[in-house]
Amino acid sequence: MATPVKVHGPPLSTAVSRVLACLIEKDVPFQLIPVNMAKGEHKSPDFLKIQPFGQVPAFQDEATSLFESRAICRYICEKYPEKGNKGLYGTNPLAKASIDQWVEAEGQSFNPPSSVLVFQLAFAPRMKLKQDQSLISQNEAKLEKVLDVYDKRLGESRFLAGDDFSLADLSHLPNAHYLVNAAERGELFTSKKNVERWWGEISSRDSWKKVVDMQKQST
Amino acid sequence: MVVKVYGPAFASPKRVLACLIEKEIEFEVVPVDLLKGEHKDPEFLKLQPLGTVPVTQDGDYVLYESRAIMRYYSEKYKSQGTDLLGETIEERGQVENWLEVEAHNFNPPVLNLTLHVMFSSKLGFPRDENLIKESEEKLGKVLDIYEERLSKCKYLAGDFFSLADLSHLPFTQYLVGPIGKEYMISSRKHVSAWWNDISSRPSWQKVLLLYPPPF
């Protein structure tokens, strides 16, 4: 029996949860290895050997060692094409390219403003850090514009890259989940008809519910 | 039918141009003047709703996001020209790893430097010296990690040139040129050797010759 892959990092981390969602969608057995970031374990010499930027997650599949959540997700899909959700990264080159395009859009346009908002609105208060109101309004405005584009796109297709749930939609789950459930910004999604429909569908997938459970159990 | 690449004067599209040349794929360019705001024209937004360059048009097939475009053409033409994806799934994993590092760790600070040092006066926004200083510090830390990585292997994903290295070409060219921070590269022995190697590839030299920057 193959050794389960290893994911290093806390499930509460958005990037870690991106990888967990992918592993569960793909039905790939994994072992989650905790990293206590409050104690600075992600900056320890041992951790820096597997992730030199001191960020989570880090990932190991036997001799292969990788980091960057979106790279890990792509690798999982390429390495295990026959497992779990076979269409997660497309079953033909055009489908795959469309998925890559929207994973990039997530990484380049959705992630930056949503990460700032998640940190400012969900994490900063819990860490007793002062919020930066101007940063919050700037990034809300940016995110609104991005979601306007998404709303138009989702009026043309059921999911971002086409008619099937894919890595492109999955990539949005972690930040969107916190915006809706921990930052009280659900309105960003519910105020736009197609975005609301899409968010409802992707967030109720079994795989994401399992990740949310893992997050709850880890607190 | 030849693939069209929009916005050749600017940095991100140059990733695609270098990639297509490495892959020996014929293409045409379509100028888009970002300084005149042509990327916000309704016609352009029909093509690319996020209003950024590059976009490629291959007959009816439209694709945007430079790294997605590079992946698509590198896979489609895997056996033609330079192999930019590695040979095995494991090597491909490393390429993806370092391409994401470029996108999320390298690009953000270097983009800030590009916008504020090169474009602030052209685009009419105030040059933020604090942001420039912070971005240089962040970029320095990233380059220290690259230095360590490149002391162990010749290129970022391993001992083969790949999309991960190529993706760095356009903005690093700005960094050592108009941004005026060549010392950030030349002060790091392995980063410097890597930069000299990748920037002297004929594909990159051709891009620089044929598609001058906007100013």
Short characterization:
Chain A is an alpha+beta fold. Chain A has ten helices and four strands; from the N terminus they run βαβαββαααααααα. Chain A has helices at about 15-25, 45-50, 70-80, 95-125, 135-155, 165-170, 175-180, 185-190, 195-205, 205-215, and strands at about 5-10, 30-35, 60, 65.
Walk me through the structure.
Chain B: Its EC number is 2.5.1.18. Chain B: Keywords: Detoxification, Transferase. With about 220 residues, chain A is α+β, with helices and mostly antiparallel strands. Chain A is built from 10 helices and 4 strands, in the order E-H-E-H-E-E-H-H-H-H-H-H-H-H. In chain A, strand 3 and strand 4 form a beta hairpin. Chain B contains 10 helices and 4 strands; from the N terminus they run βαβαββαααααααα. The two termini of chain B are about 30 Å apart. Chain B is of the alpha+beta class and about 220 residues long. In chain B, helix 1 packs parallel to helix 3, helix 1 packs across helix 7 and helix 1 packs across helix 10. Chain B is globular and about 45 Å long. The model of chain B has no long low-confidence stretch (mean pLDDT about 95).
